[in-house]
Design goal:
Blueprint lengths: L12 H26 L2 H8 L8 H29 L33 H17 L1
């Protein structure tokens, strides 16, 4: 069994117990939610003696609000954050940054190592052939 200070995604006994408890607990909460949303209020009052329950409006409103919040985050906020983090088109970081991998020598006939393509090679392959072909 790994030490408690060790962070690992591998399964071990406490994690499996917590996962099972969360699975059972979430299923029970969902079942109670469905019962509350579907069963008429007078059944709770007459048969069980429970007089206060939230209005049935919330059985529909809470999931819709949650889905709306997720949609707003997924389609507006998250792309906005990504656009704010992306450097401008004329920024040097769009060509080379601290994570750039420089091309290195490789064995002829072998698979070249992973590296970034220099912008000059990319432009040469994309645009120079076309201009040479149009001139001839």
């Amino acid at each position: 069994m790994p030490k408690m200070s060790e962070h690992t995604p591998a399964p071990y006994r406490p994690r499996s117990v917590y996962g099972y408890a969360l699975y059972i607990g979430s299923n029970m909460l969902f079942f109670l939610y469905l019962v509350w949303a579907v069963v008429p209020e007078n059944f709770f009052d007459e048969k069980l003696g429970l007089t206060y329950w939230p209005v049935k409006y919330w059985a529909v409103a809470i999931p819709i609000w949650a889905l709306t919040a997720i949609a707003i985050f997924a389609f507006i906020i998250y792309p906005g954050i990504n656009m704010l983090m992306t450097p401008d088109i004329d920024d040097i970081r769009t060509i080379k940054d601290q994570y750039s991998l420089v091309q290195s020598e490789h064995i002829p006939g072998g698979i070249p190592p992973v590296s970034d393509l220099p912008i000059t090679d990319v432009c040469r392959r994309l645009y120079l052939k076309e201009r040479v072909n149009k001139q001839h």
